[in-house]
Amino acid sequence: MPALLEARGLKAYYGATPVLHGVDLVVEAGGITALLGANGAGKTTLLRAICAMVRREGEIRFAERALDGLGTEDVVRLGVGHVPDGRGTFVHLTVEENLRLGAYTRGDRARVADDFERVYAYFPRLRERRRQQAGTLSGGEQQMLAISRALMLAPKLLLLDEPSFGLAPLVVKDIFRILRTINRDERVSMLVVEQNATLALDLADRAYLMETGRVVMSGGADRIRGDESVRKSYLGY
Amino acid sequence: MTALLHQIFSGLASGGIYASVALALVLIYQATHLVNFAQGEMAMFATYIAWALVQAGLPYWPAFLLTLAIAFAGGVVIERVIIRPFDKAPVLASVCVFIGLLSIFNSLAGFIFTYTIKSFPSPFAEKAWYGTRFMSPHEVGEIAVTLAMLVLVYAFFRFTPLGLAMRAAAQNPVSSRLVGIRVGWMLALGWGLAAAAGAVAGMMAAPIVYLEPNMMGGILLYGFAGALLGGIDNPWGAVLGGFIVGVLENLAGGYVVGPDLKLTAALIIIVGVLVVRPSGLFGYRIVTRV
Fold it and tell me: How far apart are CA B69 and CA B192, in angstroms?
């Protein structure tokens, strides 16, 4: 499969402190790539670096286009939907307003109306609560909202930062099932950061393992799952 | 009774001016958590521009609208050129910039237009049919203009995509960038709107207080008090606060302490309210689930 996103020698900094030390990464068009690793490995930073939310160096290309020098808004406008760490809900706005903001950059009104219906079909709870202040939603509902908001952008690539974080197992199962459907039916590629390696490897077809700002292993999800050191450190059996 | 009603109504009239200033302050406060001390002087300068346009022979309403456009553009330019570089500076640096702007506009107005007090035209004829026993036509017209502006601002924020994007950018800049909103421009638009709202206040106040470089000093204080009283994070609270301050000021001046101490009395009441409700009468209590 051709590469949708390709990073080479990607470095990122918080202030003067380097956090990523030259990461090479490929997300294939139409595929789901998982990013595994312990706390502080640099997974979230990698997603932020893609969206120019931190100072970065190195080469990133998205859909045949170099991203260096672009601001967050411009990267997003190219079709990168970022579901951030902490969900990034606009808590004072209604669910519907949150979704409308997701489609802010789009001019095609009729298609936007269709997409409202589509995300409501994926997550009927959001339709029920569309007039409700988003801050009053449960954690699971806010995660659904965050994913839906990113979908409203009609993205080519979804960056998902720990979609399972803090949620009940049943809700997680539901959300991951829907992510798989979205990937299959809408051909949206995904880069998923997950602490829960079992979950992530079930969803993904490729995976990268990070440690302290470097990629230490990469390959097909099955190969990573089969690796003994990964099994011991991250899968726990 | 007539006298009392008269005091209340004319309080509402000056309250409309304070409400416009309060709205201008809130528009910038919501996005930056800073109070623009130069808001009054910017409004005063815009009023001089309106005066110059009228002197140049433009009829009142075209001059009024042109002034709003100029004030809006001026607000945008000030944000992009002067305020932007202090984006990540400490709060005190921004405060210094605001005070600098205040004194620049004040001196500039004196330099260009001199400190001589000028009369400023009211678009509302002295004996118009809408004058009442309690309010002069200018007071009625001024309240109408204020309310029309509030409705327009409300509709803009409530019903347009750009208004929604501005609200989003003020509440959560990080998430706003992630949906593609150009947050920097939203701040600049906020400054433009605030400058235009201030210009309305200036042009409505000038026929009463007369046009001179220090005309907005007291009005800015009342507007700020109104914003605090109503809740500076809630535009509608701030606007209502402006009206309340106008009425309180008049009643205190008319019946309690006399005209000399009316500002003091009004401010004491406001401090009293804030002691009991620090976020203002209508300030937001944020309700979230964690």
Answer: 9
What's the pLDDT score for residue B107? Answer: 96
Most confident of A196-205, B73-82, B87-96, B281-290: B73-82
Name beta bridge partners: A28: A3
CA triple A110-A114-A115, angle to 5 deg: 115
Q: pTM of the entire structure?
A: 0.89
Q: Which pLDDT value is given to residue B273? A: 83
Does residue B290 sit within a domain? no
On chain A, the residues whose CB falls within 8 A of the CB of B181 are: 73, 101, 104
Is residue B289 in a domain?
A: no
Asked if B164's CB is within 8 angstroms of A135's CB, the reply is no
Residue B185 resides in a domain:
yes
Please name the member of B174, B179, B289 whose beta carbon is closest to the beta carbon of A104: B179
Show the DSSP H helices in B182-288 as ranges: 183-209, 217-230, 235-251, 262-276
How is residue B171 written in tokens?
């509440």
A222 DSSP assignment: H
**Half-sphere exposure in the Cβ direction for B166 (13 Å, CA):** 24
Query: Residue B56 belongs to what domain range?
Result: 25-224
What CATH number was assigned to the domain covering residues A3-79+155-235?
Answer: 3.40.50.300
B175 touching chain A per CB within 8 A: yes
Q: Which residue of A has its CA nearest to B159?
A: A97
Give the pLDDT band (50/70/90) at residue B290.
Answer: very low
SS3 B222: helix
- Summarize pLDDT for A145-161 with one digit per residue, the tens: 999 999 999 999 999 99
Domain ranges of chain A: 3-79+155-235, 92-154
DSSP letter, residue B261? G
- Pick from A84, A136, A153: CB nearest B289: A136
Going by C-alpha positions, the residue among A93, A154, A137, A179 that lies closest to residue A128 is A137
User: Above pLDDT 70, what percent of chain B?
Assistant: 98
Share the mean pLDDT of chain B: 91
Complex ipTM value: 0.92
Chain B contact present for A88, CB below 8 A: yes
Residue A122 belongs to what H/E stretch?
helix A109-122
CB-CB neighbors (< 8 A) of B286 in chain A: 91-92, 135
Identify the segments of chain A with pLDDT beneath 50.
none
Q: Are residues B71 and B198 in contact, defined by beta-carbon separation less than 8 angstroms?
A: yes
State the nearest Cα–Cα gap between A130 and chain B, in angstroms.
16
- Both tokens of residue A69? 């020098």
